[in-house]
Amino acid sequence: MITHHPSDEYLVEYAAGSLPEAESLVVASHLSMCGECRARVETFESIGAVLLEDGETEAVSANALDTVMGMIAATKPVEASRRIEFNQSTLRLIPPPLRAYLDADLDNLNWKRAGRGIQEASLKQDEGVRISLLRIRPDQKVPSHTHTGEEYTLILDGGYKDGFAHYAQGDVSHVDGSVDHAPVADPHGPCLCLTVRTGPAQLTGKIGRILNPFIRG
Amino acid sequence: MQAVADIQESTVAFKSVALSRNMAGPDNQHVTMRGFSANRRKNDEMKKMAEFIRAVADREDRDAFRQLFAFYAPRLKAFLIKNGATPGDAEEVMQEAMTLVWRKAKQFDPAKASASTWIYTIARNRRIDLIRRAKRPELDPEDPFFTSVSEQPDGEQEYSRTERETLVRKYLETLPADQLQVVQKAFYEEMTHQEIAAELDMPLGTVKSRIRIAMRRLRDQLDRAEL
C-alpha cells in the first residue's frame, strides 16, 4: 500500500513536460507502481490536450504533409536493438523507466561502499545532480544528515523509517535542506531505493561532524 | 452520464479557454447554451479523431491520417511555438510527432487516453528529446510491471476519456483568473514553477499553492462527475 505520493505540483510539471530529467525519473518510476498517480497524471495531461485543441493554429510548411508521408514511408520501424536482457530479479525490482539507466543486472552494478551497511551504485551524475541506487542492510541506521539541496527517494524494495514516517515499496520521500533525518532500514530484508540528490548530504551527528569535511554526499 | 450533463448545465457562464491572451476578460463570456452545444460539437469531433487513429492503425488509411494532420499539425506547431520553440524547430518537432502518430497508431487505446491527450503526450516527449536534448524517462504501459506492482489500475471508467476532456475544459472555464494564469503558463509555456514565480514576480510558494488548489478542485470535480 503506497502512502507517500509525489505532490500534485510535481505531477503537473511531469505532465506539462517541464520537470527535469532526474525528478522525471523518480516520478515515472513511481507511476509504474502507482495507479492512483497514473490516473492523476492522465487527468493533468488532458489539460494539455484541451489547451492544444482550443489553442491557436500556425500555418505549417507547404509540403509538410508530403514530408511526413515521406518519413513514414522511408523508415522501417526499428526496435531498440541494444536492449539489455535483464535477469528476473532485476526485472521484478526495477520499474521500466529506470531500466534504461542500468548497464547491468542489479547484482552486477558497480556497487561502492557508502557507509556502514550501505552500498551505492551511481547511475548518472550531471550538473550537480546525482542519480543512484542505494542498498541498505536490514536494520541499518543511516547516519543523521541534512542536505544542501534536495533529496528524492523512491523505495523499490523493503522499506525504512525515519523520525517522521515509514516508507515502503513505491513510496516517495522528498526532503530539502531543512530536514535532518536518520533513516533506519526495516528489519525483514535489505532496502533498495532510487535516490536523486541535487546537493551533497551533510552529516549532523557527533561522528558526522568530524567526518564531514571528508565526505562528499 | 447524468452527472456530466448536470455539471454542464449548472455552469452559469461559459468562458472561452481558447487562450486569447486576456483569457479571463469579459469579452470571453458567452451564454451557457452556446458553451453547451460547443462542447457537444467538440465531443463529436474528438470521437471522430479517435476513429481516424484507429483507421490508421487498422488499415493504414491515408485519408484518415490527412484529417488528423489537418487538425493537429497547425495546432501542434502553434503550441510548440508557445512552448518557446523557434518556428523551424516547431515545424520539425510537429513533423516528427505526426510521423510517430502514424507509427504508434496501433498502441492508441481510447480507454486510456483521448485522441488529443495521446497526441499531446507524443509531441511533448518529442519536444523534450529534440529541443531540450534531455532524456525523457517514459512509461511503457504495455509492461507487465504495471499490473504486478500497482495496487489498482485506474478503476472502471464511468465516462470516456473524451468526456473527461469535456469536463476538464468545463473546469478550466470556471477557474479564477489567477489560477488559470499559472496553469496556462505551466502547460502552454512549459515553464517550471520556479520560472513562473520569477516571471510573475511572486513567491514560489504562491505559484505552487495556486497550482495545488487548482488541481485539487479539478480532481474533486471529476470525482463528483464519476459518482
Characterise the protein shown here:
The complex is a heterodimer of chains A (217) and B (227). Chain A has a domain at 103-214: Jelly Rolls (Sandwich), CATH 2.60.120.10. Helix content of chain A is 32%, strand content 24%. Chain A has helices at 8-16, 21-33, 35-54, 64-74, 88-93, 96-99, 206-211; strands at residues 112-113, 118-126, 129-136, 145-147, 151-157, 159-161, 166-168, 172-175, 184-185, 191-197, 201-203. In chain A, α1 (8-16) crosses α3 and α2 packs across α3 (35-54). The radius of gyration of chain A is 21 Å and the shape is globular. Residues 208-217 of chain A have low confidence and may be disordered. By secondary structure, chain B is mostly helical. Chain B has two domains: 1-19 and 160-227, Winged helix-like DNA-binding domain superfamily/Winged helix DNA-binding domain (Arc Repressor Mutant, subunit A, Orthogonal Bundle), CATH 1.10.10.10; 31-138, Orthogonal Bundle (Rna Polymerase Sigma Factor, Chain: A), CATH 1.10.1740. Chain B has ten helices and two strands, in the order αββααααααααα. Chain B has a two-stranded antiparallel ribbon. In chain B, α3 (62-82) runs antiparallel to α4 and α7 packs across α10. The N and C termini of chain B lie close together (10 Å). At the A-B interface, α1, α2, α3, α4 and α6 of A face α3, α4, α5, α6 and α7 of B.
Key terms for this structure?
heterodimer, A: 217 residues, alpha+beta, Jelly Rolls, six-stranded antiparallel β-sheet, three-stranded antiparallel β-sheet, 7 helices, disordered C terminus, B: mainly alpha, Arc Repressor Mutant, subunit A, Rna Polymerase Sigma Factor, Chain: A, two-stranded antiparallel sheet, 67% helix, globular
